[in-house]
Amino acid sequence: MEQDTSYKERKVITIGVVSELTGLSERQIRYYEERKLIFPERSHRGNRKYSFADVELLIDIANKREEGVQTFEIRQEMLKEKRKEEDKKIRKELMRGQINARFGVQKDS
């Protein structure tokens, strides 16, 4: 794991604690993993480890489920949002390259 990872992204929370924080059962949490809505890391012993960002995501998923949104729809929305973020990152890099080229800025090797 990278040292500069923010505390929100560090996967250090066990499934039991996540269950307590979210009010979801461990089975529900594992189900959301099966549906590819959440991606915990595994410890060397195989235990699931979650981040604070995962906890927030699980709460968001639970709220959507209470509103009647299906897991498939949630997954599609998440993929769409991920693509949007990737496109934004690409546009930013292209813009930076154009600005650097325009003003003769050399990229460090």
UniProtKB/TrEMBL annotation:
Query: What are the alphabetically sorted keywords of the record?
Result: DNA-binding, Repressor, Transcription, Transcription regulation
Q: From the Swiss-Prot or TrEMBL record, give the protein name.
A: MerR HTH family regulatory protein
Which intervals hold domain HTH merR-type?
12-80
- Domain of life the protein comes from: Bacteria
Is the keyword GTP-binding in the record? no
Q: Which InterPro entries match?
A: DNA-bd_dom_put_sf (IPR009061), MerR-type_HTH_dom (IPR000551), MerR_fam (IPR047057)
**Organism this protein belongs to:** Sediminibacillus halophilus
The protein's GO terms of the molecular function aspect are: DNA binding; DNA-binding transcription factor activity
Entry keyword ATP-binding: no
Pfam families per the record? MerR_1 (PF13411)
